[in-house]
Fold:
Amino acid sequence: MSEKKHLGICYYPEHWPQEMWAQDAKEMAELGITYVRIAEFAWSRIEPEPGSFKWEWLDKAIETLASVGLRLILCTPTATPPRWMVDKHPDMLALDENGNQRKFGSRRHYCFSHEGYRWESRRITEILAERYGNHPAVAGWQTDNEYGCHDTVRSWSQSAHKGFQLWLAQKYGTINALNEAWGNVFWSMEYNSFEQVDLPYLTVTESNPSHRLDFKRYSSDQVAEFNSEQVDILRKLSPGRSIIHNFMGNTFSFDHYKVGDQLDISSWDCYPLGFHSQYQMENPLGTPEGYWEDYFQQGDPDYQGFHHDLYRQAGHGRLWIMELQPGPVNWAPYNPIPLNGMVRLWSWEAFAHGAETTSYFRWRQAPFAQEQMHAGLKQTDNKPAQAFVEAAQVAKEIEALGPFTPCEAPVALVVDYESHWAHETQQQGQDFSYFRLVLGYYRALRQKGVDVEIIRPASQDLSPYKLVIVPALYALSEDLSENLTAYVEFGGVVLGGPRLGQKDKNYQISQKTLRLPSPFETLEVLRVGTGPKEFVTVVCDMADQERGKAHVWQEEIITSLPVLFEDTNKQPVFMGENNIYYVSAWADPALMNSILDEVFKAAKIEKVELPNGLRRSKTSIGTFYYNYSKNKWNLKALRLAEAAELDGLELPPAGVALVREGIDEL
Structure:
């Protein structure tokens, strides 16, 4: 079903004199805004003292916005408990891994395990939903704000300690079962009761990896439980309204799929330049030379697409962008001004990846506090900023193009939160990053013009896909193993590795066999070697032609599959035939490109080598092209199109084009 696209805005009426509200609302409606998100940080204005509520301002704000036809996304304000709350529950504050209290004075200052704060969270959610849940202008609710932001999922508090012990008792039943699962006989780490189990921190050297992995599972479950409590209240008191949460980029500290299962819509807060700067600082050798500078004002060409597809999966097909970067932000290591046109490009890229609504952060730049350098659609003097102009253009283009949806993707990429926790728990090599590895697969696919569906590590219908890629899934469940095996038997192509299925759910290596689970059972991993990103090994095909380089991770493999590429020591790096392929090392971009060329032949997937920074997405009305590079690209000269709408065939930097020919063949 095709969907009309909408624009939204994040608005903070409590930041501005009430005399401004009516004009703000009028200008929002004129701009083409449909949805307005309010009140996610307003708890201190709603309830300035315990049990004392000030509703007049929020009532007026809602009526003012509704009077011009704007639809509202109300928020539960639990990401910013007021000061009196901390005085009432001083132990609600999280502790970091060194036992330091994370104090009041910013946001997200609570521990998910604290029962007192959980009660307060339910209480304020119920009060808000009772007052506004059936208001005709309320279209939906956002729970809390950005779970996991500022590294706030895991807490080493007493509340978390007690909660973790209860969680372990429920999971294992007996302390002997826990000792066995964790291998606590090693270093005499055995326990006699669950009450003896501490949180895994401040040990002399490395704590038990199975202990740490279970604590990460527990912490993730606390987020899901916290969210579920709010969702249950909202569904009861505000029926028929969509419930949403706004996830963040590169946040793997909790399972977004579990939270997404509770929601109607998954959204995320998309800050391309902030994330690009942050990612490059964390991974200085993770991208080609010049990459940071080349995309400094545009953002990574694949980072946004990856997260759009990830959160569309978390939302079972429904995606919003709750916050889109409108200009310079304040929180990244470096905060450049976006290249003119990029706000429009990011908007259309989100729509092409399935977003129903793109909402900009924020209406007007705040002149005070932590985010005063964070741009909005309007400047602090209330004059339109560059993003205002670009949002207005997007609104007109939405009306001209009409509704559309993404086309089915030929490739599925399995992404697993628990595998991130597992590899983070024991990297084995300092440069091993699960996120960087899966993003590398995604990037290589998108550079070939291929759409990608991110899927969960669970049993599901794989028949729509020509190729399923399973990188670094630390434990392959029996259900998924059987599903992949059946998929291969019915003609699907699977590409696995590296670091696939080499542990069990208890984070132990099998004592029975070193063979990988089906359908990769012809592979046996004998040893693993790791090294710095800059230490590379040349990889050649069997005709001794160089195909790229391997680094970071390399497995010593025995296999009956034909070896297609090997390193200079004659160790297999890429092997396979018919429908089963495996990569035993971390491939650099050139090697990944060569590997996909081979696998695409087997899967009968058509590709095109897109030039630097050019990406595309196929939809029900045609193929969208967007230009992240600083170069002009002529789509006709590249043999990609004969005609194009929006910016046309000559695509400038930050340009967007829609190519309609061949829609029936998409």
